[in-house]
Amino acid sequence: MSQPDSIPNVLAERYATPAMRALWSGEGKVRLERDYWIAVLKGQRDLGIPVPDGVIEAYEKVKDQVNLNAIMERERVTRHDVKARIEEFCDLAGHEHIHKGMTSRDLTENVEQLQTFRALLEVRKKSIAVLAGLARRAQQTRDIPFTARTHNVAAQVSTLGKRLAMFGEELLLGVQALESLIQSYPARGLKGAVGTRLDQITLFNGDVSKARALEDRVLHHLGIHAALDCVGQVYPRSLDMQVVSTLVHVASGPGSFAKTLRLMAGHELASEGFAKGQVGSSAMPHKMNSRSCERINGFHVILKGYLAMAAGLAGDQWNEGDVSCSVVRRVMLPDAFLAMDGLLETTLTVLNQMEVFEAVVEQELMRYLPFLLTTTVMMEAVKAGAGREAAHEAIKIHAVQVARDMRTGKVAQNDLFARLAADERLGLKAEAFEALIAQGRANAGDAAEQVDHFAKRVSELTAAHPDAAEYQPGSIL
Amino acid sequence: MSQPDSIPNVLAERYATPAMRALWSGEGKVRLERDYWIAVLKGQRDLGIPVPDGVIEAYEKVKDQVNLNAIMERERVTRHDVKARIEEFCDLAGHEHIHKGMTSRDLTENVEQLQTFRALLEVRKKSIAVLAGLARRAQQTRDIPFTARTHNVAAQVSTLGKRLAMFGEELLLGVQALESLIQSYPARGLKGAVGTRLDQITLFNGDVSKARALEDRVLHHLGIHAALDCVGQVYPRSLDMQVVSTLVHVASGPGSFAKTLRLMAGHELASEGFAKGQVGSSAMPHKMNSRSCERINGFHVILKGYLAMAAGLAGDQWNEGDVSCSVVRRVMLPDAFLAMDGLLETTLTVLNQMEVFEAVVEQELMRYLPFLLTTTVMMEAVKAGAGREAAHEAIKIHAVQVARDMRTGKVAQNDLFARLAADERLGLKAEAFEALIAQGRANAGDAAEQVDHFAKRVSELTAAHPDAAEYQPGSIL
Amino acid sequence: MSQPDSIPNVLAERYATPAMRALWSGEGKVRLERDYWIAVLKGQRDLGIPVPDGVIEAYEKVKDQVNLNAIMERERVTRHDVKARIEEFCDLAGHEHIHKGMTSRDLTENVEQLQTFRALLEVRKKSIAVLAGLARRAQQTRDIPFTARTHNVAAQVSTLGKRLAMFGEELLLGVQALESLIQSYPARGLKGAVGTRLDQITLFNGDVSKARALEDRVLHHLGIHAALDCVGQVYPRSLDMQVVSTLVHVASGPGSFAKTLRLMAGHELASEGFAKGQVGSSAMPHKMNSRSCERINGFHVILKGYLAMAAGLAGDQWNEGDVSCSVVRRVMLPDAFLAMDGLLETTLTVLNQMEVFEAVVEQELMRYLPFLLTTTVMMEAVKAGAGREAAHEAIKIHAVQVARDMRTGKVAQNDLFARLAADERLGLKAEAFEALIAQGRANAGDAAEQVDHFAKRVSELTAAHPDAAEYQPGSIL
Amino acid sequence: MSQPDSIPNVLAERYATPAMRALWSGEGKVRLERDYWIAVLKGQRDLGIPVPDGVIEAYEKVKDQVNLNAIMERERVTRHDVKARIEEFCDLAGHEHIHKGMTSRDLTENVEQLQTFRALLEVRKKSIAVLAGLARRAQQTRDIPFTARTHNVAAQVSTLGKRLAMFGEELLLGVQALESLIQSYPARGLKGAVGTRLDQITLFNGDVSKARALEDRVLHHLGIHAALDCVGQVYPRSLDMQVVSTLVHVASGPGSFAKTLRLMAGHELASEGFAKGQVGSSAMPHKMNSRSCERINGFHVILKGYLAMAAGLAGDQWNEGDVSCSVVRRVMLPDAFLAMDGLLETTLTVLNQMEVFEAVVEQELMRYLPFLLTTTVMMEAVKAGAGREAAHEAIKIHAVQVARDMRTGKVAQNDLFARLAADERLGLKAEAFEALIAQGRANAGDAAEQVDHFAKRVSELTAAHPDAAEYQPGSIL
């Protein structure tokens, strides 16, 4: 890595947190592998394979002496990465007892699955933190009347809190899929070169039960709940696809949230905020760019690319497996999790810093509310004695004219209700319209209850995962 | 559809079954919609909305009179597909009572989810049928010694049954994800234009509990277990992505199986078989092409394309939603399920017709077995008194030479064991090698037990889904 | 196709034009195939293969009698689609002379390439029509001062015409790539089962030159300029990927345009317009939804999915080729072009109907212009004698305060210049600010010249393709 | 980068060459940026902007003092990467003259395009080297009779050289698309924040021609032939997609070649070879795994993932652009080129080291040749007086029986011709069959001429790019 023009992993360097980096770094992986080898060796010893005294201790003593350059030097000679790491560890320990009865994939499959599994736990933690942030923000804005939009055009009244809870509910679905994956995620286990457990069975002189017992111990060491039984050299790569597609799923709630916040910023309804001390550009101090939300959307595009890679491997196993997937997984697995980590950190930061400009929210509502209430006006006019057809026609003509006048600059404000009050066909007075406006602002159905419902579900999750609830993002670029 | 140069949906026409087509056809959808409207109308009536006598009956009487051309004519006028279908149904019934308090999406979202949900059930049925077929085939070949390959090169002994069970276990993982999705799949429900339930609440004079009760009845009609609470105009499109990614997942076991069967056919170890009466080409009557397996792999590529479409929509919601997803979902949802249906039908057919050529399996084993047993030879030689290093060197030199002689045509058969028997450094007699061969053929670890374990898990599924176990594919092209 | 629950190709039925449908319909393909067979037969006759008198005439007489159902019946028996079509044609003609020395792929590869090639020409025509529409619109709005946005936030002055020309220039890049593809697109030709031309050479008694001459005649019939020389059973599938990726490329200019028009509609700066007679919903007559622009973006997502399918086939050739690509190409090729056709038709319609609300454009400009001119104010203040640092500080404080006051509703209009005029530190009078505004409105650099430059390039294209320039879209749903 | 658990870019570290790394490393990019700033500054000076003496020299003196850590420290404060790099460069030089009249994108867009452009040139060089390797190998094996396969099953005779040339021709198509891209690739140029050139025009006191002249000089510095005229803040991202899709295209010939070589290795027809000193595993010294070919296929999957990212950005421009693409391009652009570099290096290595086992090729041919010649046998039998129907029936029955006997182990060799010679219905003697075999081996049509044709086209390319022809890959892992 000290070679000229070395290139760091940009996702790790710029966006991911130390915790996620530690799972995927070269050093981190070597540490996991060595722990794994020692766990296998202990299991073998406990099940009767002779291991001289002091050997395990010797491995444990050196296991943290990780020198990636030395390992790479070995690999350039052997052209075999696992062999290089075995030799390095054994030379450090002064023994050759690890990796007994194991094939390379007995090591790498399980350790990579362990990285994946722990990374999923990390994603769960931060996703719940995002949910907590959304719930907090939604509760704060639970009752702020708000112009909901469809087709990017004013459609009906809602509340700001409900909009936020809506994105939260999308994330809840993702977290539910994630939880299901965590519970069912199976490890490949110690199955040998083609999955028959031959070498471990041979090591135990044909005792299949001991080979299976060894595997159980190793799985216990990994902390993974489930195991595959009938595999080849590798675990099915469709499992990787399920992992990455679940990441894309989890990222979708934040993705929709970020996209909508970018739209809202364009209308000055809200802003993702500034970090303390941050300013807009010197030329345009007012300019509050949605850089972080744009970045969230960018991370989502990245994740979808890794999903394409994962899908490219799924269902393409030749015989008992080969390594055409190897280089893909070296890139896709770490990078998908590093991008996901950046996405969640960025989302948490936005949730901490975002600002809502309530006055602009109110201005927007007043601009559109009369349009949104035309149906109500008609019902009131009919109640007051107007003919249905006449009322409908009058309202339609005025509404279209007001829209046109606003678009042509003839009027600056929406004066539809003033015009309707002046139209005798409707028979409604100005006070009636004032009442309608007051009532219309509150016409958000059960939006507020939906916010409460969402917050309640989130509080159940945070109760089960208190560390997630308290998690605070690091400083982002 | 009678217009010149009309183009049928090729997946529906050539590959999908009537059951799957009925779910996604224009007629099928209109029927589902009409049932849904009637269910809403009944619910409203039961909850106190006045519906004159005879109205519901009038709708029910005409609900099966589906004329897609008439509806399309209406749409060309209104430029609004839902409005066209409302008008058609109402004109047929002679009433205007359906769709009360509903927005278009209150109809289309739920009906499309119903199509999706029922299609998932259909996929589950056929996936279990594929599992049953794989289990049956694996049990038949449970103990046939077999050259397992990694990197497409002979690696170790296994059994043919284990290879099949291995692909079965990949499919089991997919079916597990599918079951989890079916159990958690949530309907959008009757939430109105922006998700606040405003219009139904208004219809019930502000009684939120009645609006919620109506939704419960409608969900009960759909038969979907879960419901979303806080949505906008649409349900989150990441849910569609979960659906399609689960299809890709389920397709992966069959995909790996088909790819490997194509490889095996190239070695004449097996063939996907012929349908009764089918022959190879007249020019080449011996030629048994893996057309069906190739098609399975093709379907998988198609599904991955629809996954890209689904991913393209996920996390891209603007505000409370819009219809930029509409045309995508019109294509992606039906076509993904139609392709999946074709994939499963084709896989079932292959499982019914495939042939294994055991003699060629045996020939291949004999070609490679001596190589695969070199480690055992060495252990035996050491037991018999040979030095480890000398034995290792002797074996390596002979093995490399035999491989070279076979590749250069010097020998036609693998005579490694004859050469080793003649090498005094090893001190092993010809009989010893014969014993090794006999034992080596059985050197498949616990492959057979893995087959049993797989078959047992499948039998649990087929016990729970007896219709799936008995399902037989239709005739394929 | 008259079977119950038949499903039409939704892209063909709802969105594509008759011209594009005719290229991809079953009837259309059979017609192209028959023409192709006849062309081969004529070539063979001219090069010396005996063909009895009247045979070619007999084929020509029946070539338009296309009965897809009859062909499908044959395929269900033979399980071979090409054989079914040969038999049908021969039975109709009463002769068996076509397909001589040909393998299936000698037919299907070339005919599918012909469909592709002609569809590319159709795409070129409509793309140039879109360019013409963009140029026309850009010239109409060439000088309208406009608030350009980055990060969806006001950034600098531009002109509306320049914005449109910008999307036009993106499309120009795509059209350039398309033209390059059309010029270089190579046909597979008549190469036989594995690409060695064996069967035609045999037919000509070993005369290679005649086999090549026959191919030349066939290519001339196709109208495709280039040919492959060394192929296997199939042409390289990466060529399909180049085709589909070029479609995605061409779709990108319209995609960006549609996305931005959706944003503009949200601000009421513009609208995609209504078709004659179309109104908003009865409940909300003012509501002008960007349905067509949303659909354009949806088509783009669809195309990207077909690109994933095409990429899934590229670089995956086994030996001389197989048919794992077959089902994929049956879906992907027609559907990509049908979607593209719909995208271009929709774009043309939007360009015809879109409206710009100049008054709102002006209001927006006045809201942001003072912010956009702060740099200029500072330079003027310095010229007028103010200290640079003091001026910068004063401007910054006022700008931030005005932005805050607008967001909190304290002021309704941007009164920054009034505040700056009142600040003695700057030493600038109200008239100076009026001049700045007047000048600032024109501060669009060479935007107008860019529009002219774009229009000139488009006019060169339309001069070369006059039919494209005059093309008018059909009516869309 | 010296932080704990730093993660290198795995593609750069393990697979890419120093030349490609230098283009995409942090240091490399900073060097390109500084050269670019200096070029702009010189251009401004030459066109009349006052630049004090010594300033440019001061920048040039320090331009190679690149300290990424220092820059990153600045970015953590400013949260603006370009600002950080400006400050670093200016502080080193002791002046503040660079970046005058420039916005960030005037720097980054052009420099990233320069990286892209130079990387495309590098890809062209190595692609031509791959073509040269394929041509060399194809000429060496031009006349080796060979069993061509379709559906992975023996189909017709070809030559080995033709198979290699076939993959070469696929690559030629890719290189042709690459060349077209290189010739047309346009730079964004110096257009300012929203593309109006405002700031440079202002800098030159309103003189548009000077602003354009400056841009011309800068483009000349870049060495890029074409330029965009009407852009926003950014160049259209569909251009990135064209770049990445072209990489996938170029990778497809190598992809198909590698996949087929993996199949051939499974039949021991060929091997990708070993590096000097490399051996198979100690347990299985004979085992020659297709690791490099598998890796080539893996790189292709990776590239398709980056294509999905690139497609995700195409046609998604909001207004004049934003930075949602930023994080995606930071990952996708370098990593796509680094993967491509690894793919081409690996392919070159395989071409250098691959071995063909001609004896096995011959054995395979003898196994299938009688089947492949049945049509010829029939023609000869008819010539010799046999009835057509009787001959056809006899041949078919024998052929199917031989195929069955081989698959059931009754015969070890294909004895079809012996059986046919013994069948009186055909009236052909043993010698006749010997002649048929001899002739049949040569039945490869114009395969050899196709090889020559391919080699000729490659030689034209290598003549134009002599450095490419001589390029030798580095040592791979």
From TrEMBL, chains A, B, C, D:
Q: Which family does it belong to?
A: Belongs to the lyase 1 family. Adenylosuccinate lyase subfamily.
Q: Where is the Adenylosuccinate lyase C-terminal domain?
A: 369-455
Q: Name one GO cellular component term.
A: cytosol
Q: In which pathway does it act?
A: Purine metabolism; IMP biosynthesis via de novo pathway; 5-amino-1-(5-phospho-D-ribosyl)imidazole-4-carboxamide from 5-amino-1-(5-phospho-D-ribosyl)imidazole-4-carboxylate: step 2/2; Purine metabolism; AMP biosynthesis via de novo pathway; AMP from IMP: step 2/2
* One annotated GO biological process: 'de novo' IMP biosynthetic process
Q: Which Pfam family is one of this chain's hits? A: Lyase_1
Q: Name one GO molecular function term.
A: (S)-2-(5-amino-1-(5-phospho-D-ribosyl)imidazole-4-carboxamido) succinate lyase (fumarate-forming) activity
- Matching SUPFAM superfamilies: L-aspartase-like
**What EC number(s) would the UniProt record show?**
4.3.2.2
Q: Which organism is it from?
A: Brevifollis gellanilyticus
| Broad class of enzyme this protein falls into | lyase
Q: What is this protein called?
A: Adenylosuccinate lyase
The root-end lineage is: Bacteria, Pseudomonadati, Verrucomicrobiota, Verrucomicrobiia, Verrucomicrobiales
